[in-house]
Amino acid sequence: MTVSLIERFRDRLPVSAATPVVSLGEGSTPLLHAPRLSEKLGVDLWLKWEASNPTASYKDRGMTVAVSKALEDGARAVICASTGNTSASAAAYAARAGLTAVVLVAESAARGKLIQARALGARVLAVRGDFDAALLAARALADRGDHVLVNSLNPNRIAGQRTAVFEVVEELGAPPDAFVLPYGGGGNTTSYAKALGELGLDVPVHSVESADRPRTLASAIRIAEPAHAASVEASGANVHAVKDEEIVDAWLELARDEGLFCEPSSAAGLAYLRGTGELRGARVVVTVTGHGLKDPGAADFHAPPPIVVDPDPDAISRAAAG
Ligand code: F0G
Predict the structure, then answer these.
(1) pLDDT (tens digit, 9 = 90+) per residue, 235-263?
(2) Whose CA is nearest to atom 9 of ligand 1?
(3) Three-class secondary structure assignment of 166-223
């Protein structure tokens, strides 16, 4: 039977026997060795494939804890602002818990994520403005007391997201030499740093942001003002910036060399790794945060369109050969 994240890590999470566990079978995601990219980049590369979480992003790790605790505390409704993945996750866990979810998404959120939140029965409000404006509004509304905020400003989210580090260290049998992950609002970087601190491990965290935060094509990390900037800085994480072209190249390479189709923002870590010699020879874990189907528009734009052929073996053979 599937072991929920809360069951697997119960002793390290802010839950008790009285907490109703709201689970969709999150966590315990694959840690995949990447032989081709390891060879190309001169590192021992491992990919933490977080798209295999129930709503196809790492957000579910924190959401199971946040929604379980909200239910325990007698909440009726949750609210979040989101570039898309948090809203899909909040919608799913709220549905599972029988709570109402109100999700505020930036008008520019990727289509697949919006469809998820809509289908899952959330009240989806597209805010005129960017993510930062939506987050301010969500916080203000949560302060009124009718909704529990389930953004990563909720400490239960951070607590749940620490478990990715626990899994990696447990499964490798030893800590890697470095963790590399995308940096949007900084909640995940904060979680990773916290987990490493608790384990007493001095492993560097490389946190990779867009060089053009307000406009990047990587819509999940299109955040001008990261809410966790201060804790990211205090954590000692190494922050790097990558350009959109580098993200797209890494994104295509991850798909074609290793078979992982992620959304563009999820390739930010690999984009940094491809452009640096700093980690040569190291065992590196790159977190791939969300699924490619979340943002079909990006794939439509950057991947070659299908070639139209007649159902004729000769024509197909010619077309297949390129
Ligand atoms: N990767 C994906 C797929 C994301 O959805 C996000 C954030 C990040 C990386 C960045 O992580 O914010 O913890 O530094 N998405 C948020 C959302 C902002 O609303 O879904 P972070």
Answers:
(1) 999 999 999 999 999 999 999 999 999 99
(2) 182
(3) HHHHHHHCCCCCEEEEECCCCHHHHHHHHHHHHHCCCCCEEEEEECCCCCCCCHHHCC
The C-alpha atoms of residue 279 and residue 171 are separated, in whole angstroms, by 21
- Please list the helix, strand and coil fractions of the chain in percent, rounded to the nearest 5, in that order: 45, 15, 35
* 50-94 residue pLDDT tens: 999 999 999 999 999 999 999 999 999 999 999 999 999 999 999
The pTM is what? 0.97
3-state SS, residue 146: coil
- Measure CA 125 to chain center: 21
Which parts of 2-130 fold into alpha helices (H)? 5-8, 35-41, 59-72, 85-97, 111-119
User: With bands split at pLDDT 50, 70 and 90, how would you rate the model's confidence at 199?
Assistant: very high
How would you class 277 by CB atoms within 10 Å of its CB: exposed for 0-12, middle for 13-18, buried for 19 or more? exposed
The pair phi, psi for residue 250, each rounded to 5°, is: -65, -40
Query: What are the pocket residues of ligand 1 if the criterion is a CB atom closer than 6 Å to any ligand atom?
Result: 57, 59, 82-86, 152, 182-189, 220-221, 263, 265-266, 289-290
Ligand 1 atom closest to the CA of 181, numbered from 1:
9
Atom number, ligand 1, closest to the C-alpha of residue 57: 3
Q: Is 24 left (phi over 0), alpha (psi -120 to 50) or beta?
A: alpha
What average pLDDT score do residues 261-267 get?
Answer: 98
The CA 124 to ligand 1 mean position distance, Å, reads 18
Alpha carbon 243 to its chain centroid, in Å, reads: 19
Give dist(CA 196, CA 190) in Å, integer: 10
Tokens of 196: 């490493």
Q: Is residue 313 within a helix (H) or strand (E), and if so which, with residue range?
A: helix 313-321
Contact 179, 273 (CB under 8 A): no
Report the nearest atom of ligand 1 relative to the CA of 223: 18
